[in-house]
Amino acid sequence: MEINPLEYLLNPNKRIFWIFLLSSLLIALTYLWLNPREKRINFSKKLWLHPSAILDYGYFVFMAFFKVLVIFPILFGAKEVALWVNAALLGEYGYTRLEGFSYAQIMFIFTLSLFIVSDFTRYWLHRFLHTMPMLWEFHKVHHSAKVLNPLTFYRVHPVESLLFGLRYSLSIGLVSGVFIFFFGAMIDIYDILGVNILAFMFSLIGSNLRHSHIRLGFGEKFEKFLISPYQHQIHHSKHHTDTNFGGFLAIWDWIFGTLTLSKGVGRLKLGINSDDMKNFGNFQNLVFFPFFAIYQSFKKHFF
């Protein structure tokens, strides 16, 4: 199987799809035009050639290959989950159909349901990655970045990548299975280039700036509903890792008490505590150190 990491630029389902990168660049240039004092850090070699950034670039290539060769083959798909859910509902309740909905209405409800359920499950998995000690050992890989760039998004341990793949299959499959049961197999979504239109639009308004040093906030009112790039940067700071777990929507953080607005937040110091940061300075440690840390924890508590 041929694997080309550059295909990420051409795939609308990827964060670094070229249109999303271009839209983020245009937003960033507008922001820097309005905030000229921040140009120095964002155009600095110290940012783009920082050892942490260079590690991101190499790790991105590794993960592109690893996902295709190892993770994808062991994942079950959303289609399998949808068929299982539909079969389970048929076995329990028999043939059932909801009438009175137009095809356009079903498409709208299905599109919205997929987006909301996916974002909700993403919030909780992200929160569990921070609050469950074993999962936090793997998630430290992502938070060990000392500087942020769009490829930091892919600085994720293979175990975490597998968990998010399972989350996607289960959440999308569950919603799809329920809709097939109630409305039949002829369901579809409103999409742009094959991507849920809501996810596409949110990716278009600067998702790549979340892993950047462009401190773009949406204002207090909007940040209770939508996660701004600056809010996610706050999440990457050492003193706010227990806040702003949301993917696209901030409402989950608002409802469950984990929301931090960008207004009034001081200078950010990115990363995790110093004792942990030294353990993620090279490629090998990003992959293997979490297993060592978990082993040491088990050894300390049970042996």
Quick rundown:
By secondary structure, the protein is an all-alpha fold. It contains 13 helices and 2 strands, in the order H-H-H-H-H-H-H-H-E-E-H-H-H-H-H.
Computed CA radius of gyration, to the nearest angstrom? 21 Å
State the distance separating the first and last CA atoms. 44 Å
Low-confidence blocks of residues: none
Total helical elements: 13
Q: What's the arrangement of strands in the largest beta sheet?
A: 1-2
Proportion of residues in helical segments? 55-70%
What structural class should be given to the helix and strand makeup?
mainly alpha
Relative strand content: under 5%
Largest beta-sheet characterization: 2 strands, antiparallel
State the domain count: 1
Number of strands: 2
Shape annotation: globular
- What would the average pLDDT be, to the nearest integer? 93
Topology pattern, helix = H, strand = E: HHHHHHHHEEHHHHH
Can you walk me through this structure?
This protein is mostly helical and 303 residues long. It has one domain. The protein contains 13 helices and 2 strands, in the order ααααααααββααααα. Strands 1-2 form a two-stranded antiparallel ribbon. α5 packs across α8 and α7 packs antiparallel against α13. It starts with 17 loop residues before the first helix and ends with a helix. The mean pLDDT is 93.
